[in-house]
Amino acid sequence: MSIDKIIHMLHTETGMDVSITGEFTYRSSIRTRMQDLNIESTDAYLKLLEKSAEEMGLLIDEVIVPETWFFREKHAFDAMLKNLRNNNSETSQHKRILCLPSSSGEEAYSIAIKLLESGYKTDEFIIDAHDISQRNILTAKHGIYRKHSFRKAVPSRIVNKYFTKYDNEYQIADEIKHSINFSQANLFDATTLTRKQHYDAVFCRNLLIYFNREEKKIAVEKLDATLKNNGILLLGHSESSIIPTDAYTPCNTAHSFGFIKAKNEKSKRKRSIIKNAFINTMPKADIAKNKNKKQSKIVRTPQVDTRPPIPHAIEVRPTKDSLKHANQLANSGDLDQALDTLLTTPEDLHNCEYFTLAGTIYSALHNPEEAEKYFRKALFLEPDYYDALMQLSLLLQNKGDDKNARLLRKRAERNHNTKINSGLINE
């Protein structure tokens, strides 16, 4: 069928696995583009895609929905800064940072602001920001944002210093804009990330979760090759478990999901780094063939967790220390131990953080059924709890329930806009 061929073309172009992203998302995007072009036949649209790179780019823009904001998960920026300072004597004059995917630009601009606020000058760092979406790149280059991009509390001092407000829009200062090299790029193109040992820090957050095992392997190999020894790799919370412990060490900044690249002096060990990182994603038959081979100590890649939830004694509440410990374990990539810590800690029927963390870990372990249960428990306690709303929205989107996913996102955004209007950002 033509629709299946189009979906295959999208996978080839982006690396995104339809089984992870959800076929409904692809089909909805294809229908939208066909309607925009007044094309009724998928056969006709397929022929257009086969000869038009521009239309393929527009379809990719439709599939990829940017979900970012300024200083998202701010601990990652703290971890970057700490690592740059620790490696000051080992790096070149310019600090080089990669932001991929750069989405609509908020993350790259946040990196620049963080560096400037910490005493760096614009001629002391270079930020390369890449995204597969041309629309995202154009948005980033324009540097004009609305309140939605400030959904977390950004200090008014930062907003006033680095943005100029025009009506309901905020224009980033030219000083920041000119410090970043925005460009369209596909991670899987041979011409992307060809410089070895080039970057001091790499932000690649919430991208790998959309790839299958083979694409993850290729992506991590390229990121590893372009990152300097002792450089820091910053990932999303659901991606940390694929990083091998014999090649990377979790940084000491909590909630950053940052990993420091070790100095790998033995070439044989370097070649085995990525292989070891993905061995637990191999089919069982392939693992059986290798059962007699000695394996390096690795962090297990998320597998479908079939364990039933452990019954809880609800009359005892978890302590802040137990939740903190579970968070630290999850941050370091030890998802199984983090989950065990939570499941052996009695539930708190009044604690949104407990349920949201459990749902997040189950989601990372590819157990969406249990994840959804915990996110809904969190929302039962606090209907506008932002993290649970966004996590459940992504989960529903992956299941193909775009309608309810959008409703949850709007609910989360409405709640944050209310907080903004209440004074989190000065008008």
| CATH topology category name of the largest domain | Rossmann fold
Strands, total number: 10
Average predicted confidence as pLDDT: 79
Order of helices and strands: HHHHHHEHEHEHEEHEEHEEEHHHHHHHH
Counting H and I runs of at least 4 residues, what is the number of helices?
19
Strands in their spatial order, largest beta sheet? 6-2-1-7-8-10-9
Q: Major beta sheet, specifics?
A: 7 strands, mixed
Task: Identify the overall geometry.
Answer: globular
Structural class: alpha/beta
Query: What is the CA–CA distance across the termini?
Result: 53 Å
CATH superfamily of the largest domain: Vaccinia Virus protein VP39
- What is the CATH C-level name of the largest domain? Alpha Beta
Return Rg in Å. 22 Å
List descriptors.
globular; single chain; 11% strand; 427 residues; Serine Threonine Protein Phosphatase 5, Tetratricopeptide repeat; 7-stranded mixed beta sheet; alpha/beta; Rossmann fold; 3-stranded antiparallel beta sheet
Structure description:
There is one protein chain. This protein folds into 3 domains: 2-62; 75-272, 3-Layer(aba) Sandwich (Rossmann fold), CATH 3.40.50; 320-424, Serine Threonine Protein Phosphatase 5, Tetratricopeptide repeat (Alpha Horseshoe), CATH 1.25.40. Helix content is 50%, strand content 11%. The protein has helices at residues 2-14, 18-21, 23-36, 42-51, 53-63, 75-86, 106-117, 134-142, 156-162, 174-177, 213-226, 267-278, 284-289, 320-331, 335-343, 352-364, 368-381, 386-398, 402-424, and strands at residues 95-99, 125-131, 144-145, 163-166, 169-172, 180-184, 199-203, 227-234, 248-250, 258-261. The strands form 2 sheets. It has a 7-stranded mixed beta sheet with strand order 6-2-1-7-8-10-9. A 3-stranded antiparallel beta sheet has the order 3-5-4. Helix 17 (368-381) packs antiparallel against helix 18 (386-398). The radius of gyration is 22 Å and the shape is globular. Mean pLDDT is 79; it is low at 265-319.
